[in-house]
Amino acid sequence: MTDSILQTSGLGIGYRPKNLAPKVVAADIDVELFPGELVCLLGPNGAGKSTLMRTLAGLQQPLAGAVDLIGRNLQDFSPAELARQLSLVLTERIDTGNLTAYSLVALGRYPYTGWSGRLSEADERVVRWALTSVGAKALANRNMIELSDGERQKIMIARALAQEPKLIVLDEPTAFLDLPRRVELMQLLRQLARETGRAILLSTHDLDLALRSADRIWLLPTGGPLQVGAPEDLVLSGAFQQTFAEIEFESHTGSFRLQPQPEVEIALVGQGLQALWTRRAMERAGFRAGNLSAQHRPRVEISEEQGQTTWHLKTIHQNHRCTSLYELVQSLHDNINQDQP
Amino acid sequence: MEDIRDIAEDPPWPDSGLRWGALIGLAMALLGSFLLSLAMGSVSIPLAEVIAILWGESPEKASWGHIVLSIRLPRALTGILAGAALSVSGLQMQTLFRNPLADPFILGISAGASLGVALVVLGTGAASAGLLINLGLGGHISLVAAAVGGAALVLGLVMAVGQRVQHAMTLLILGLMFGYLTSALVSVLLYFSIPEQIQTYVVWTLGSFGSVTWSQLRLLAPVILLGLGIAHILAKPLNALLLGPEYARSLGVGLRQSRGWIIVSAALLAGAVTAYCGPIGFLGVAVPHLCRALFRTSNHRLLLPTSAILGALLALVADLVARLPGSQATLPLNAVTSLIGAPVVTWIILRRHNLRQSFSA
Taking the CA of residue A49 as centre, how many other CA atoms within 13 Å lie in the half-sphere pointing to its CB? Predict the structure, then answer.
């Protein structure tokens, strides 16, 4: 295995309020980051995700233990040295004024340029490469004010790339983005990690996306300890269920259940995509769909009638025909008493 | 539209060099207004004669030589230095505090400098004939030192408190309060002064480039050139600070060091000008905004030189207007800069939507 880029040993994180005892958020953190790896830090609000990110990025002092970056204690780096190894993308939306995307990415060359900040031919090449890598070549001449949130985030990542660091740390980069933009961004980050051999660490609330794209997950429950593993490992070990106990993590689907486990069971007859989404609709309405005997009532049967999907809700006395899932949900609410199994 | 841009192999990559054309154009305009301010005034002197006098030839009328060389030239040079100094000082403060309305006058830095001046002049009981005229060289150095010290003190205080409060408007109110506080101290000093001193002090607060003599320029010029030199070197960290302190640090900026130098430079510039020309309003806040709007950039490598030149240009123009050429009367300089500056600041506030985007206000 290759050498790790970042390594912590017995790391304790938290705050040192003035004149008060230090407030430890999480302790005994031993983690490593390897080249080419995309790692997602997950955890409920208040567990200390931001504190951990800030400590690893050198913005905050550790309370105990040490952070080693390329085999050297983080505290021993000067700001200029650190900037060549580690770059940051923060949650906070930065208002940069009258800067074009190109000049913003060019700021990433700060650790490499002379006192005047003038870009050499080589610096210009890196800036162009960074813009191209994030697929934002067309935005180069646009003013930052004109860009959408997703485009801005890409430019900020290009800036982080232009620093040519070993490690890029992103604090909730997907926070202000819509779903397609989030998926796009995660794909981009994964691809960047693979292709450029850098380690990328990001914190996120996007459980689903993190489970699908991260090489490893750091899971930080409130009060610790930090758990590390491939996403699937953590699902199997039950770490997710523990960390997100109040919102019922569903191990089978890797997502959250919005409703508590429904009590009333209804037979569902049908196949394929229709059956899958009918099940979802029924669960949303508060019913459990089961594969039950032909005699079970109530039951929902899916059928094709003249090329149109129809649903029949059969209770002991009645048969309701529905032409959409919306109607079916209405019908379920009207006809079935949820309190009595 | 999007598609066409995407298909293009390589976009025209922007040129990140300096815009020399713009700089030279501005410099030419400055030269023009410099010559005009030598030619115009209560006595009108032909431009050809002015140039001849500057070349060392004797003019048509002997008095013209005296007017140009002893009165108008130091005045114009002072205007250039002061305009450049206040604008660059304002630009640095706007970036440092990430606040579009920051400038030496608004943040109370000039008031701090005034306090220094008042302490020296009123405290040492300087002669009443003129506020600054009867001081020896040692007196001048202590005057400038006191003004720069007062400016740095207020700037440091605003900075220290500003780190605790994030909101931009809070910072402005703080600056106002520091301004009131120092003004109050000045008025206490004034209360115990003799009427002549009070009058000269009040005249000084109206602002003027005309009271600076050649011997005073010998101290003023090097101090301002030093401040401008430091500011020029700070262009790189100032650019990084556009992203806010945390990004700046992650880019390798030594925050404490950079902020320290910015304060030194801004205090030297604002303090020295205030000591000699009085607290001059609005140039510091207006000029950087005009430059950003003119050149559509926030890059300090361009903003610093253009602000200096445009500031010098506007200072000369304001002084020319204040002298009311062709008449014997003059207006207070501060009245003229306010007439230029107040609409600009109003325009900034009215475009607050835009302002929010330019700064995290």
Answer: 23
